[in-house]
Amino acid sequence: MMDLMIIPLNGLPAGKSDFSWHAGKEFFESFGNSEILDADLEVRAGVVKSGNFLGIDVEICGTLTVACDRCLENLDMPVDETVLLSVKFGEEPADGDADAAEGEREILYLPSDGGDIDLSQTVYDYACLALPMQRVHEAGGCNPAAARYLSLDDEMPQEPKEPGDSPFAALKGLFDKE
After folding, report:
1. Number of domains comprising the chain
2. What is the pTM (predicted TM-score) of this model?
3. What is the domain range of residue 126?
4. Which of 2, 35, 56, 57 has a CA positioned 20 to 30 A from the CA of residue 44?
């Protein structure tokens, strides 16, 4: 069983407190994510408690291993995300009644009697959002055996070799003045 990313609010002293965790392959497997083949993330949370204000700054740094979209070989993607959270206690307002963010901070609502914050879902969400939509090796980085079967040149538009080869050749001179 993986360790949860829990911040105990009961007994949390005023001022700044620091927490840290490691998120590996098991962390992403527990969410049922099969796209992330391996992970090595360091998660650090700085919690500031001052009166009614509770701010949490989360830093997620490391690498996630995914399959390359071209050659299907393992590809290490760097992750360097910062998440700024403000914690509010009580009921979450109905849609449209309040903003989902305070300045640069995202608001996290907890029940008034809540004693702990689990950042696991937040870390999972932001780590996955840090991955680009297209996950490919840099030019020449794909597995040569797989790259041999890829015809990447066919995806690029080709310039016509002769002026008459263009599909627009019949339109040439249509608006020329004689």
Report:
1. 1
2. 0.74
3. 6-155
4. 35
